[in-house]
Write a structure and sequence with these properties.
mainly alpha, ten-stranded parallel beta sheet, 13 strands
Length: 848
């Protein structure tokens, strides 16, 4: 190719994410292969030509594989992977896009360059252009798959062109991978924010954590000379995070002095000190943007020095340890004549540094009193959280600084000033964006800028919750910003909890009722994913769990949105078992009743554990004790019905926890409610399908058969249908078994006579009464040629669902060899003509 193929950004993003997903799939296959092999010293062949080797570190000391990430044990056959995953998958993706079909034929996608050798087979020499290479590295890192081996794969500069290294939260990466990645590329920008997050180590100082000195030490000479932007926020300077104050004061970021070309430096949330700041000022003469927020800096005096770099952006929010007289601070601010953006915001905590608050607030007030003489080039000023600035002083400053385009005023009394009241009006002449909580636009601005800062994020989310209480319109931007806050604050701290609590309340408002019907399904899927993470993280926080249940208890979400149904059901069941809140019980059983029908039988067996069964039956018992017929009881019965479906272990747990006595009480108390009767009989059907449990249902003291036989005569077809099903399954036991367990002899024969007459009287209902996972329980019934009544019910049931939902059940019959079973029955000379008619009707329908 003469040059890189330029793609539309949205299309390019799709392509990059697709490749990243292929990488994720490839690594997952490798990981499963690793876990399936014994961890011995020999080498086994892995998937796709890769190999799996013992874990070793750079010091040739063997490491316990369980103490290091599994991904570190993988070696990728990069040539094969590049050909199969990057080239082929992208070609497939683009060939399915009509508008680019012609382009793909002549130019392979994503800047792939192909050369052919003289060999008999063509060899692809694959080159990924810079924008795609960088975004691909970012996607892989964000998915948590940037291991040492993957980093080594990206280090090949003949394939990848990378100037911007995204290493944020690259918890699987060690210095070995970092050194490999840095060795062959010349980077101009490195984002290593919180690079150690997600690292699974037993000790913080075990040599695996990446430090600032590691990052700089791994750089090659060309990167050190060319690097312009460096973000090392949340990264420690040394492996030992418990250095004494004396050592801290010496300066641990001294290796930064080799980066003389840096324009943007972010050292926020580190132990960056005064000596480090002075060293940076001395060596980084081109520095324009500096972020020292939440560091150990006590004085910024030298930023006002004539030899200091001419900063245009200074962020120093939450600088708790700052200890400078207000006059000195005022002097520094006045000397920073090139400054265009200043962030001195502070989040008020339980024990704030009052000295810092007073000195900085007073200093900025002094600057404002000076009118337009100081900070005259300022376009952005963030003073959120700083109370004490007089309104008249602020307004004069605002009027004398016409270049201002942003003001951070959250948690101050200034965001409600009349000059900002019309911000939501499109015709407003207001020139400045304001982060506050007095209008929708202010709230949006606050969430956009402060999503990483828990106290401000919580404040903005509370404001958004109040704003959306009575607003039924879907707002994509609002929901995306709330989800962004939820994703960022996924840690078990109290501050994260307060953000999640406010965010979960907002999510409910933004997805509830009319609003939810307007939201695209993929967005709702993201909502569920974020909600589940929150539930799992704060399982002991009742109000937060309640908020999450309110979001999940949504018909459209539960029935139309794809997500992890089993994980959701487990978390909801856990919530149900640990709470005594009636509202939470109602929502939990409603969610479980729907999800239990969507998960596999293996999963329902796990969900129907003895502990969970006790909790569900206890809820039913409580409702019966107060003779309440409400949604909680109905949903609980539905949950029991669906959980016992095709799950013998769950059925056994139900019986062992006195469930039969409980449902008999339900039938006795609510003997005039066909809805309740249908749910109970459906549940009893599931129990009767389990051969070894049938004798329990015939127990004399239960008087179950009298109730079922009575319901067989119900005028409601749903009721008598399931009553007939119970009798059909129990009639698989012989007369002797029935007579030995019931008071009166001949009960089985009488029930079978009633059963035959009942089925013959049915007229097909308009809708589908029931949904089946499988027809397998019916096949033994159909083969009972000595008992036509049993065959008749089974044949009617199969015929009914096939006629109502042919597409689903035709496939099921074919897959389970049900057609062969029906054909076999038709050949039986003893077959009752009524059964034969139903069987032939079903076969004709299948054949048609």
């Amino acid at each position: 190719m003469a040059g890189d193929l330029e793609l539309q950004p949205t299309l390019q993003d799709v392509c990059i994410k697709a490749i990243a997903n292929r990488i994720e799939h490839y690594i997952a296959k490798q990981s499963r292969s690793t876990q399936s092999k014994p961890h011995h010293c020999h080498t086994d062949a892995g998937i796709s030509g890769s190999t799996i080797k013992p874990c070793t570190d750079s010091n040739d000391n063997s490491m316990d594989c369980d103490d290091s990430p599994r991904l570190a044990a993988l070696e990728i056959d990069s040539e094969k992977f590049m050909k199969e995953t990057v080239y082929n998958s992208n070609q497939h993706i683009f060939q399915n896009i009509e508008s680019l079909q012609e382009k793909c034929i002549h130019n392979p996608p994503c800047g792939t360059r192909i050369s052919h050798t003289n060999h008999s087979h063509a060899q692809h020499s694959i080159y990924i252009p810079r924008p795609v290479s960088e975004q691909l590295l970012k996607e892989v890192c964000k998915k948590g798959h940037l291991s040492d081996q993957v980093a080594e794969w990206f280090s090949d500069s003949s394939r990848f062109h990378i100037k911007y290294a995204y290493l944020k939260r690259a918890g699987h990466l060690t210095t070995n991978g970092l050194r490999a990645l840095f060795s062959k590329h010349t980077f101009t920008e490195i984002n290593a924010e919180n690079i150690n997050e997600g690292r699974h180590t037993k000790r913080a100082s075990d040599g695996k954590r990446i430090t600032v000195n590691d990052i700089i030490g791994c750089m090659n000479a060309s990167t050190k000379a060319s690097l312009m932007n460096l973000n090392i926020s949340y990264v420690t300077s040394e492996r030992d995070e418990h250095k004494t104050r004396a050592v801290l004061s010496f300066g641990q970021f001294k290796r930064l002095s080799v980066l003389s070309n840096v324009r943007t430096l972010n050292v926020s949330h580190t132990n960056f000190s005064d000596n480090d700041l002075n060293a940076v000022i001395a060596c980084m003469k081109h520095l324009q943007c500096l972020d020292i927020s939440k560091t150990s800096v006590r004085s910024i005096f030298y930023l006002g020095d004539i030899q200091a770099p001419k900063l245009t952006i200074l962020r120093m929010n939450n600088l708790d340890k700052l200890h400078m007289p207000k006059e000195s601070l005022f002097d520094v601010f006045c000397k920073m004549k090139e400054l265009r953006s200043l962030d001195i915001s502070i989040e008020s905590r339980t024990q704030p540094n009052l000295g810092e608050q007073n000195s900085v607030t007073t200093a900025i007030s002094m600057v404002m009193v000076g009118g337009g003489h100081a900070l005259k080039n300022l376009v952005s000023l963030d003073i959120s959280g700083r109370e004490g600035i007089e309104e008249i002083v602020f307004l004069n400053f605002f009027a004398s600084h016409p270049r201002l385009t942003f003001l951070g005023l959250l948690q101050t009394s200034l965001d409600g000033l009349s000059c900002f009241e019309d911000q939501d009006n499109e015709d407003s002449a207001t020139r400045v964006k304001v982060a506050g909580n007095c209008s929708e636009s202010q709230i949006i601005e606050s969430l956009t800028r402060y999503h990483q800062r828990p106290i401000f994020a919580k404040e903005a989310l509370y404001a958004l919750f109040n704003h959306t209480q009575h607003n039924p319109l879907y707002n994509k931007q609002q929901l995306e910003l709330v989800l962004r806050c939820m994703r960022y604050h996924q840690n078990p701290s109290d501050e994260a909890y307060s953000v999640q609590l406010a965010a979960s309340a907002c999510v409910y408002n933004l997805t509830n009722r009319e609003t939810g019907s307007q939201i695209p399904v993929p967005v709702l899927s993201q909502v569920v994913t974020a909600t589940l993470v929150t539930m799992n993280l704060f399982s002991d926080r009742r109000q937060l769990q309640k908020n999450c249940l309110m979001t999940l208890c949504n018909d459209r979400i539960l029935k139309n949105v794809p997500f992890d149904y089993f994980k959701t059901a487990r978390l909801v069941m856990q919530c149900l078992c640990s709470s005594d809140d009636g509202a939470m019980h109602r929502m939990a059983v409603a969610i479980i009743s729907i999800l239990a029908a969507k998960i596999s039988t293996e999963e329902t067996a796990i969900l129907g554990s003895n502990t969970n069964m006790k909790a569900l039956l206890q809820i039913v018992d409580q409702k019966l004790n107060v003779r309440a017929l409400d949604l909680t009881l109905k949903f609980a019965l539905s949950a029991l019905w669906n959980l016992t479906d095709e799950s013998p272990s769950t059925c056994r747990n139900f019986i062992e926890n006195n469930g039969l006595a409980l449902v008999l009480r339900v039938l006795s108390i609510h003997d005039d409610n066909p809805c309740v009767q249908t749910k109970v009989l459906g549940l009893l059907n599931n129990l009767a399908e389990v051969a070894e449990l049938r004798p329990y249902l015939l127990h004399n003291k239960m008087a179950l058969m009298q109730n079922v036989r009575t319901l067989l005569a119900s005028e409601h077809i749903e009721v008598c249908y399931f009553a007939a099903g119970v009798i059909s399954h129990l009639a698989m036991l012989d007369d002797a078994e029935w007579d030995s367990r019931l008071i009166c002899n001949g009960m089985r024969e009488a029930c079978l006579e009633d059963l035959f007459s009942c089925v013959m009287s049915w007229k097909p209902p308009d809708g589908e009464m029931v949904a089946y996972r499988t027809f397998k329980p019916f096949f033994p019934l159909l083969r009972r040629h000595d008992t036509p009544a049993i065959q008749l019910w089974a044949a009617w049931a199969i015929c009914h669902v096939c006629l109502k939902n042919g597409e689903k059940y035709q496939e099921m019959l074919l897959k389970e060899k049900g057609v062969e079973c029906l054909q076999e029955i038709c050949r039986e000379p003893r077959l009752d003509e009524n059964v034969a008619k139903l069987v032939r009707l079903t076969l004709d329908f299948i054949n048609d």
